[in-house]
Backbone:
């Protein structure tokens, strides 16, 4: 293999960031910001990555000394660069010396987290994300070291506040030392909005890259040129501004903008694709009738919240559609369709309820939700933390009953206002009769 070399020396570096959840998204997003910082020499931003469940990613990265290529792609354009910001990583195991050294690093400024929406559960089980984080933090506390800033990079509204809530609740349930609980309550957990399309890599993309560039990178990341990271102001936020992160008090507005107009469109396109036998979402958005519908859906979604003052919403929506349509970054609809019960509340349900309350048009969102329920009924493979319950409830003949039962699933967040259930059921019937594209065309 051709040697992978970043543009800076990695010798004698100290860990500045611990990341929890070493998936493709982290490697294609936050690790790139840290790589920029290391290139420009603004301090220690090297990362120790923790894989919560499987050693597959760390084993593959270790073979390459944790360096890998991020290839930005759009149309014919390819822009590969070697990322050297991840210095080391492992499964979560506090008995592992490199991990405990990383936790005690004097340079540690940040702990970032990407564990997906469903992992934010308070409780006492020792292998949950909140409890593992608590164990990490306790180790620093017990040595009198400064608390790092914790940044959730998961697609949840007010993700920082949410993280703090699950940490405090778990600490309380575990009856941890009260001085520690007090210290914990004062840790900064600013809300943040992250955005970049980084699909799971496929073996064929790795082969294609090798043909084009002459070396095989088993840890390759393929992504779009676009990336954004906005974090709420907090003590020490200058450091983040120095590495290209936007600091904005309007982070809540940015979250709603992204979760509803980008992710809402993404999920709706994924369920449409699944029901239409379309493998990649770029193929769906290439259908003029479908992209036309998505533009009209975004118009209704955009009425459900206040956008950041500096953003041109129509432009943002068009850019979101173009990004979904980036055929060089093939994102499987099946991947986006996963975990609907944990994603749709913030992507579609909250918008629907806000428009219901305001008495504003929302039928396109009702249709989008009917596609999710149609997907649950379809017999296609469904991956979801509530899968067993949802499938049982969705798979009944009568649409009104299916919608009612799905909406009443225990654990489903922000369920749609009851007054909308018959509307969703009506679209479910129409989709069954005419197919999703024909229904979308008339909406
Ligand atoms: C996608 C996101 O899989 C999904 O649910 O909608 O991963 C999406 O690609 C990112 O949020 C983009 O920032």
Residues:
């Amino acid at each position: 293999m051709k040697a992978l070399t970043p543009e800076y020396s990695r010798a004698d570096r100290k860990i500045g960031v611990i990341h929890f959840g070493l998936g493709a998204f982290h490697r294609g997003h936050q690790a790139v910001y840290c790589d920029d910082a290391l290139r420009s020499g603004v301090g220690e931003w090297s990362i120790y990555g923790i894989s919560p469940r499987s050693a597959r990613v760390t084993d593959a990265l270790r073979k390459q000394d944790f360096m890998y290529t991020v290839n930005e792609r759009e149309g014919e354009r390819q822009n590969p660069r070697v990322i050297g910001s991840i210095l080391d990583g492992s499964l979560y195991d506090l008995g592992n010396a490199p991990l405990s050294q990383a936790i005690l690093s004097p340079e540690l400024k940040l702990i970032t987290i990407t564990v997906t929406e469903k992992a934010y559960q308070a409780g006492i089980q020792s292998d949950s994300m909140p409890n593992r984080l608590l164990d990490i933090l306790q180790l620093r506390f017990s040595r009198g070291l400064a608390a790092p800033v914790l940044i959730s990079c998961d697609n949840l509204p007010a993700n920082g506040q949410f993280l703090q809530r699950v940490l405090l609740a778990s600490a309380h349930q575990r009856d941890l030392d009260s001085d520690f609980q007090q210290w914990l309550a004062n840790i900064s957990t600013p809300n943040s909005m992250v955005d970049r399309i980084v699909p799971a890599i496929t073996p064929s993309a790795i082969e294609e890259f090798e043909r084009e560039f002459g070396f095989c990178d088993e840890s390759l990341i393929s992504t779009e040129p676009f990336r954004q990271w906005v974090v709420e102001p907090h003590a020490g936020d200058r450091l983040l501004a120095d590495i290209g992160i936007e600091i904005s008090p309007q982070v809540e507005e940015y979250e709603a903008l992204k979760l509803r107009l980008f992710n809402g469109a993404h999920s709706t396109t994924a369920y449409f694709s699944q029901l239409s036998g379309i493998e990649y979402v770029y193929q769906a958005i290439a259908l003029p009738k479908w992209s036309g519908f998505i533009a009209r859906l975004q118009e209704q979604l955009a009425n459900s919240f206040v956008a950041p003052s500096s953003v041109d919403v129509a432009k943002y929506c068009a850019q979101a559609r173009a990004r979904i349509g980036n055929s060089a970054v093939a994102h499987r609809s099946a991947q986006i369709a996963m975990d609907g019960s944990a994603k749709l509340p913030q992507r579609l349900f909250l918008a629907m309820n806000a428009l219901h309350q305001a008495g504003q048009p929302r039928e396109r969102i009702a249709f989008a939700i009917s596609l999710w329920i149609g997907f649950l009924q379809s017999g296609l493979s469904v991956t979801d933390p509530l899968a067993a319950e949802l499938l049982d409830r969705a798979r009944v003949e009568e649409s009104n009953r299916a919608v009612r039962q799905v909406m009443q699933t225990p654990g489903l967040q922000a369920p749609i206002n009851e007054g909308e259930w018959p509307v969703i059921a009506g679209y479910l019937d129409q989709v069954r009769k005419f197919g999703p594209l024909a229904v979308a065309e008339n909406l």
Notes: The longest helix spans residues 251-276.
